């Protein structure tokens, strides 16, 4: 029943990021750079977990946020984890 909300939110995020990237000179490079930086930030966070104690589990949601929203998405996930 509630599954369609997740699909709708994911579609809105994809649409917003796609429209933003389309306004750039090199849209594919922009999308790939954001995705690589987001996955890199998530990987760096996982590698430094024993030292810092800060962790984000790797699942569909965190992977989607890291790939689509990039580093600001990973930062938002960390802030949400802190607040909740």
How would you describe this structure in keywords?
single chain, mainly alpha
Write up what this structure looks like.
With 84 residues, this protein is mainly α. Helix content is 81%, strand content 0%. It has helices spanning 3-22, 27-47, 49-52, 60-69, 71-83. The radius of gyration is 14 Å and the shape is globular.
Describe what is shown at a glance.
The protein has 84 residues and is mainly α. Helix content is 81%, strand content 0%.
Structural class: mainly alpha
Instruction: Report low-confidence residues grouped into runs of 5 or more.
Output: none
Largest sheet: none
Number of discrete helical segments? 5
Query: What's the gyration radius in Å?
Result: 14 Å
- Total E-strand runs: 0
Strand content: under 5%
What is the share of helical residues? Answer: over 70%
- Mean of all residue-level pLDDT scores: 90
Shape: globular
Helix/strand order, N-terminal first: HHHHH
How far is the N terminus from the C terminus? Answer: 24 Å
Q: SSE layout and pairings?
A:
Layout: H1 3-22, H2 27-47, H3 49-52, H4 60-69, H5 71-83
Helix pairs in contact: 1-2, 2-4, 2-5, 4-5
């Amino acid at each position: 029943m509630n599954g369609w909300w997740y699909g709708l939110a994911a579609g809105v995020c994809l649409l917003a990021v796609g429209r933003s990237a389309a306004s750039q000179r090199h849209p594919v490079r922009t999308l790939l750079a954001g995705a690589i930086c987001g996955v890199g930030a998530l990987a760096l966070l996982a590698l430094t977990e024993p030292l810092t104690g800060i962790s984000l589990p790797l699942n569909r949601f965190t992977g989607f946020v890291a790939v689509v929203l990039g580093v600001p998405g990973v930062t938002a996930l960390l802030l949400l984890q802190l607040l909740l």
